[in-house]
Amino acid sequence: MTFSRQRLRRLLSALAAASALTAAPAALAWSHLGHWLVGELAQPLLTPAAQQQVAVLLQGEPNPTLAGVASWADELRGGSDADLARKTAKWHYVDLDPERCDYQPPRDCPGGNCVIAAIDTQSKILADTAQPLEARRDALKFLVHFIGDVHQPLHAGARPMAEGGDDAGGNKYQVSLRTAVAPQGRNARRQVAGGPIPTNLHTVWDYYALESAILPPEKYAAQLRQGGMAPVAPQALGGPADWAVESCRGINAQSLYPRGEDGEWQHKLGGAYLDAQRPYAEARVRLAAERLATVLNAALK
């Protein structure tokens, strides 16, 4: 069989795209909106001392606020620092055993390459005033992002092996989604809001769960603040391992993997699923913000 140059280019492009999809790391945790909300909700909870140091550390940033830098760690993957993106790729998640949701560092975080160890390490760098300002600035930006990441349930676990095998935190759990939210992803231009949108459960939680509120970000943040927010008391803070275990346990407790009345796994989702799960997603964002504020207040005394 012979190919014209144009057809050959198309074939090579398709193969490259397929390869990228299969080789891609786990999907990002929370969309830009989710991470923005974590930073926006945390900023007013900082002490005056922490506020002052955040202003110094973020001086020169295009948007020198926690919300403004919240997606920086994901944006590295877009080419702003490809080497740092590769080095930190595994710092966004941890694969806990979904049947027990317990944390065993040698098994779950070899070499310290997981979100739990990353939060611990970056907290120490941020608190160490002997560190170069650039290192502390990066540590602050990493913390804003990673504390958001660890509260996204599918960045801490998946379905138990006995119930469907390892699906990479929902990345391999394919779904057809109907929603009024504008599609996201490589093929978004070919898709229309209202669906069906071919995607996966991880992306549903990263993006659609919060975006389906269809609110301007500032109004969404104000809505989430209703009822009051405060930093978590230090004695009740726990640590990133506790937060990851909590996220992992929430997968089953909140039925993130949907089943039909017959008990079979569902792969066709719509507004009813998003509406049912959004309050839990919002609760995770609020808790991430409160814990982030507590960590920053302690590190930036």
UniProtKB/TrEMBL annotation:
InterPro entries, alphabetized: PLipase_C/P1_nuclease_dom_sf (IPR008947), S1/P1nuclease (IPR003154), TAT_signal (IPR006311)
Pfam hit, one: S1-P1_nuclease
Signal peptide limits: 1-29
Keywords: Disulfide bond, Endonuclease, Glycoprotein, Hydrolase, Metal-binding, Nuclease, Signal
Top-rank taxon, per record: Bacteria
PROSITE patterns: TAT
Keyword presence, Metal-binding: yes
Protein name in the entry: S1/P1 nuclease
Organism for this UniProt entry: Pelomonas nitida
Taxonomic lineage from the root: Bacteria, Pseudomonadati, Pseudomonadota, Betaproteobacteria, Burkholderiales
